[in-house]
Amino acid sequence: MLAGKSGAASATRRLPNREAALEQLYSDISAKNMFPFWATSTDVAHDEIKQLMGTQKAVPHLWSYKGDIEPILFRAAELVTMDDSERRSLILVNPGLSPRRATVSTMYTAYRLNDANEVMPPHRHSPNAIRFGLTGKGNFTGVDGEDITFGPGDMVLTPIDTWHNHGGLRPRFLQHHRGAGHSSPMYVYRWEMMQELIERFKDWDGDPYEALSIEYVDPLTGGPVFKTMTFFVQVLRPGEKTLPVRQTASLLVAPFEGQGHSIIDGKRFDWQAFDNLAVPGGSWFEHVNGDNRQPAILFVASDEPALKCFHLFKKWGRDAAGSIVKIA
User: Fold this and answer.
1) If we measure between CA atoms, which residue out of 111, 129, 128, 112 comes closest to residue 120?
2) Residues 223 and 117 in one domain
3) Does the reported pTM lie above 0.90?
């Protein structure tokens, strides 16, 4: 049987128009929504290993608030009304994932500017979402009938499948269960509460890899506010620098106060307040506050809980000597 297979293979290689036949074979496979799970060493175009490795991957990227985001938001507010679209939000698209609506592979960040008295009708969606106030003290959203006014630093949850709006309306034909069973029942986390903890722990040593990090949690379980995402504030004291970290989780890092820089896979990204930084899973990164007088405060989103559900979350760090250590 071995000799027979070898003979068949030799005969196949001698077939006339083999290359054209192979091209047709691969075309037919693709048309049938199938994939050839075999690797070839001679036909690069149809090397399945190269195809698998060639899929889109998020790349580290920084969006400047002052230079890019803010000017476009104000232009959009002048040109696009609520009659044109109720979703006048600016989504940050990772260059490595374009045209997918994704800032990292599992999450996206959007910026929104509301003019005075603008109302967005009630709606709901399958993804979990949060709103983090940057400017203005009269921002408003309603979540499952709870009216919430929020300002800079406040985080508001809009859990999966919960009706929410930005104008004070509540659908009476629906039952409203806080968190819809998928999130923290606490819909708003005030910045004053976070500031109090920061002030209390500002002189602690913190963690060499995460500095002084404080996570938002579900008050009933102590777990993350969503089953798939977690959020935390990371404080870099004056002159503080974190040791390099690499993890399977992806991060969205939004500087809230101060300025500094991050080094991701050897590339430096300088940031300031309200910028946004994509840190793809698998990248080595570290954060630096170069100011010796003022702290830098980062607001961070992570898909760590989703990975933990599948036992896929891993984390490594480099110690002061440069050796790699396993953290999680």
Assistant:
1) 112
2) no
3) no
Whether residue 138 is predicted with pLDDT greater than 60 in this model: the reply is yes
| Integer Cα distance of 280 and 60 in angstroms | 6
Low-confidence winner among 32-46, 115-129, 193-207, 228-242 (lowest mean pLDDT): 32-46
Q: Are 156 and 141 in contact (CB under 8 A)?
A: yes
Q: Which domain holds residue 160?
A: 61-189
Q: Domain tally for the chain?
A: 2
pLDDT band at 113 (very low <50, low <70, confident <90, very high): confident
Confidence of residue 158 (pLDDT cuts 50, 70, 90): confident
DSSP string, 74-106: HHHHHH--TTT-S--EEEPPPTTTTTSS-SSSS
Q: Are 180 and 291 found together in one domain?
A: no
C-alpha span between 66 and 72 (Å, rounded): 10
CB 47 within 8 A of CB 40: yes
Question: Which phi and psi angles does 64 have, rounded to 5°?
Answer: -85, 130
Same domain, 183 and 197: no
Give a yes or no: residue 221 inside a domain.
Answer: yes
Q: Are 179 and 195 in a shared domain? A: no
Question: Does residue 288 register a pLDDT over 50?
Answer: yes
Of 189, 209, 230, the residue at which a domain comes to its end is: 189
